Structures are given as structure tokens and as C-alpha cells.
Amino acid sequence: MRWLLLALACLLANRLLALIHMPAGGFIGPMAVSIAYGVSIGGLRLPRAAFKLGQGVIGVLIAQTLTLGVLTQIVAAWPIMLLATLMTLALSVAVGVGLVRYGGLPGSTAAWGTTPGAAAAMVAMAEENDADPRIVAAMQYVRVVAVVLVGALVSHFLGGTGSAGHPPTPWLASGMGWWQMATTLATVATGVWLFDRRLPAGALLGPVILGCLLSLGGVITISLPQPLLELAYAALGVYVGLRFDRETVRIIARSLGALIVASLTLITLCALSAGGIAWLMQTRFVTAYLGTSPGGLDSMTIIAVESHADVGIVVALQTLRLFTVVMVGPAMARFVARFARH
Questions:
Q1: Residue 107's pLDDT band (cuts 50, 70, 90)
Q2: Dist. CA 106–CA 46, nearest whole Å
Q3: Domains of the chain, each with CATH number or no CATH
Q4: All residues at 6 or more sequence positions from 167 whose CB lies less than 8 Å from its CB, including other chains
């Protein structure tokens, strides 16, 4: 009964946001409802498998947008993308130093919490390095929520046309349509199974890689009906939202204001750098903004698709930063922790 009520509330929030044409309403609505539910009532957790499969659906959606033309554009712009990645990491280090110095949080824990990468990966790496995983998770998801909400608002006002790929299929009316969806779902499941534990954010990037290879090779035609996309968006939103509960709020209550200020500061600085990146890459600001935003690859992709930004560029920038953070994350955290008050 509780799951049914939560699902109905998520659906209502989704429809309300759709009425005002909010990008990623299918993700933001369920996330907001789930945060409210987790903090006020609690007791529910979405199975991790549902979250992984939701990421996999977003992965094949990304693969659908990565045509040969988009891939060529990405390869040609790799020096600028590397510059954008380094700028975002440098800004996050600066904000992290300020937070551990004046935010009242433990040094190494706060350092991991401010590192912009896949939240789940950062939590796992923090636990391996003797930081408090609960605080790291809370910090990561507070930033994700802030980035998603601000990103959706920016995209709402600046969104327009771009290389967002093929529109989703409303429903499947033919036998060929059902076959295409079956092969698409098989690609999702296989990509998640093969790459989940072999790559950072493997549940997302695995289906991207596999879907790209099969689609560009003409082996499959990716078919993603709108109800399937909405279900995947909701799975991601509910999973993130239910991570917030009373215990999480209690842990970060004293520093919640500092966390929000730090997140908004980082978002603002990244937005300023996105202006220069957009000029260098000759692309629209909303594309550079979503690519440099310190949010998750999955959430930024959803917003990019629904705001018709250049999804290929957004995915390339976010993926490059993800792999860079996984490689240099421990060193970044140790550097930021040195500035903590003792």
C-alpha cells in the first residue's frame, strides 16, 4: 500500500511538472516526492537492481543520440573538453577547501562529499578511505538535488533545438516495433550485466557502449517508448529521493546551510566557466552548462535530452570528468582534507 501511494504521488508530481513544461519532470517529480516521503515517513528502499536497470535505459537513450556525426564532433573537440573537465575539478577543489575550512564537517569526509563524480562511486571510494559514508552520501545527494533543480530551471528558460536524437516512440503498434523494443531491452540488461562492476557508473556506460556498437553497426534499431523512459526516470528519482531520511537529515542538519551554499557556489562558478566553453566549442550555452555542471551523468543526460541540448557533448564532458575523478579522487580528497580545522 505504501508503494502504491508513493507511485501515485510520483505520477501526480510528474504530470504537474509536465503542465509547466519542466525538463526532466519525470525525474524531478518522483525525486521530490520521495525526499518528502523518506524524511517524513521512511521505511522504503527501492531495490538497487531497479536503479541499475533505470540507468541502463538512460544508457541506450544516450547511445541513440550518438550518431557518427556527433562522435566526430566530440573527437575534434577533445582538447576543449579536457580543459572544461580540469576547470570543473579545480573549482570543486576550491569550494571543497572552503567547506571543510568553514563548514564544520570532518576533513576527509567533507573532501569526499564535495568531489564531483558519480555519487555511488564517491561513497564507495570514501568508505574504502575511512571516511563516513553516510555523511558523504548525504553531501553528494544534496548537491545532486541542487544541481538537478537549477539545471532544470536553466534548461527550461534556455532550452531549444539541438541534436537530441530521435524522439521516443509513443507506443508500439506493429510486430516490428515490439521486436525492436525487445532487442533494446536485451541490450540494456546485457550492458548492465557485463559492465556494472567493470567500469565506474558501469550500469549507465555499459549500455551506452553496447548500444552504440550495435546501433551504429546496424544490428539493432533502438526503440524507447515514452512510458519506458518515464519508468526509468522515475526509478532514478525515487532511488535518489529515498536516500534521504530522518537519520540523514540529523547527521547533516548543522551543516545543511553550508552544503547548500557550497553547492550553489559551485554551480554558479561552473556556469561562468560554461560561457567560455560554449564560445570555444561553438555550441549553445545550455549544452556547455549541463556538460560542466557538477551533477550525475544520468541526471544531466535526462535534462539534456528533454531540453534538446547537444546530448553527445553533454555525455562526453560528464563521462570524461567521471573517469578523471575516479583516477584522481583520492589525491583530491587528501589535498582538500589538509585545509580542515583540527
A1: low
A2: 29
A3: 2-337 (1.20.1530)
A4: none
